[in-house]
Amino acid sequence: MIDIPMIAILIVILYLLSAIKILAEYERGVIFRLGRVLEKPKGPGLIFVFAPIDRMVRVSLRVETMDVPPQDIITRDNVTVKVNAVVYFRVIDPQKAILEVQNYLYATSQLAQTTLRSVLGEVELDELLSQREKLNLRLQSVLDKHTDPWGVKVTLVEVKNVDLPESMIRAIARQAEAERERRAKIIHAEGEYTAAEKLTMAAEVMQREPAALQLRYLQTVLEIGAEKNTTIIFPLPLDILVSLKSALESMAKTGGGGKRPGGSAPEESEAGPKEIPGSDESKGGAV
Length: 287
Fold this sequence. Notes:
Number of strands: 8
Largest sheet: 3 strands, antiparallel
Distance between the termini: 191 Å
CATH class of the largest domain: Alpha Beta
Number of domains: 3
Shape: rod-shaped
Strand order of the largest sheet: 3-2-5
CATH superfamily of the largest domain: Band 7 domain
Low-confidence stretches: 257-287
């Protein structure tokens, strides 16, 4: 004969066992009792969910990683690029994450894509390539502002990769090469300017101390001799060249004026003065 009380007790025990739920430390359970949400989420640990009166939705509080697929973006200076990113976020209010949005994961993904296109479309290409940290903070601020009513906290946004067209890559390479050449020329000019200043200072020192020039000459000779060179260099003062030039010019002037080096005038011709053709004396005879 079937023992009805024992069967009822067994059913009750099985029902109670099925009502036992265990939530991990990072999980919370949002309980709906007869369609109305309870005041506080349950967990972690051992909880009771009495079906079909209660219905539980598990929510993870761990940081979620979401990969934003590549987006076609036109920057402010009309350059088309492909940009992808990664978003890190976590649920801080399980009830809002369930009540305020149908699927917070999908909603956060779509919001991240549209925000990425809108924010990066307002900047120029140079800013996109050089100011990643600033743009990441801006993206995080915009996303966190829109996901806060859902109980979702965006902790970090990182732009992963920026794909440029081949023509733009070549243009950037030429620009970088020109910039390096410009810096090299500036550095070379600064070196020449500094060297000229130092040489001017050295010349002033040698002008005040003539012995310094002789010491410099001896040092140069020593450097040349250290390489087993048979060439010997003798310094020739410019004053000697100037004096020699003046002497040559004076000798040239003396020889061109018809005077001998001794200063005496040339002797007259024994034949007397010569007749000048076409003059009056030639017509009337010699005087």
